[in-house]
């Protein structure tokens, strides 16, 4: 994966500024912020030439929406590599590091790879409802999506200051993608164990600044 460093850094900052600075807290209790976030993510993907799907479901009485785009693989299209990040925040926080930063990476990776066709299908998912009161219950966006998955690969991105000291005892896999002087370092965290339990090889990613 290659690209101009200044352009990449500029795009990442722009996405975080728009999500955390302009929109701010993103929760179902403030539906206008969720709609603005959905509109922003879908708009960015549309500019890249993608057509996204909406995966709507009930989250404790409210409608939640996962956003999905796919790049079909060339000859192993039924095998899916999933890259995901949640776009909601803790109530009353702008969520720059948790989790606008990961949404920014999700958007930028999908931009950089938009003309790349791999053997396997690449799926990019912006998840809803990962923060309380939805955390660790069936209403989580990733939990809802995981129920329909077959075994494959998952890469889940979380805020940049995640600690390696917080690793759970089960290790499903790891990943390193070098990007000029920056890296995406892979480790597993409890947010993706639900995928591992379903036989999906799960990788947790944080930004190594």
From TrEMBL:
Entry keywords, A to Z:
Aminopeptidase, Hydrolase, Protease
- Entry keyword Protease: yes
Peptidase M28 domain spans which residues? 66-150
Q: What is its EC number?
A: 3.4.11.6
Top class in the EC scheme: hydrolase
Q: Which GO terms describe its molecular function?
A: aminopeptidase activity; metalloexopeptidase activity
Keyword Metal-binding recorded = no
Q: Name one Pfam family in it.
A: Peptidase_M28
Q: Which GO biological process entries does UniProt record here?
A: proteolysis
Q: Identify the SUPFAM superfamilies for this entry.
A: Zn-dependent exopeptidases
Protein name per its UniProtKB record:
Aminopeptidase YwaD
| The species this protein was found in | Allorhodopirellula solitaria
Gene from which the chain derives:
ywaD_2
């Amino acid at each position: 994966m290659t690209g101009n460093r200044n352009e990449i850094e500029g795009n990442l900052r722009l996405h975080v500024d728009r999500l955390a600075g302009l929109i701010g807290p993103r929760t179902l209790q403030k539906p206008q912020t969720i709609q603005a976030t959905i509109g922003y993510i879908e708009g960015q993907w549309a500019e890249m030439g993608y057509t996204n799907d909406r995966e709507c479901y009930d989250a404790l009485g409210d409608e939640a929406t996962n956003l999905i785009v796919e790049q079909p693989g060339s000859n192993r299209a039924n095998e899916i590599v999933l890259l995901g990040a949640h776009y909601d925040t803790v109530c009353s926080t702008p969520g720059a590091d948790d989790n606008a930063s990961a949404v920014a990476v999700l958007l930028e990776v999908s931009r950089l790879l938009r003309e790349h066709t791999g053997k396997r299908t690449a799926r990019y998912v912006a998840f809803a409802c990962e923060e309380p009161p939805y955390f660790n219950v069936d209403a989580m966006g990733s939990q809802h999506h995981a129920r329909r998955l077959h075994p494959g690969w998952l890469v889940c991105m979380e805020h940049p200051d995640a600690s390696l000291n917080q690793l759970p005892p089960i290790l499903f896999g790891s990943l390193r993608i070098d990007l000029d002087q920056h890296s995406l370092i892979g480790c597993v965290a409890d947010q993706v164990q639900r995928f591992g339990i379903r036989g999906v090889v799960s990788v947790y990613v944080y930004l190594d600044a």
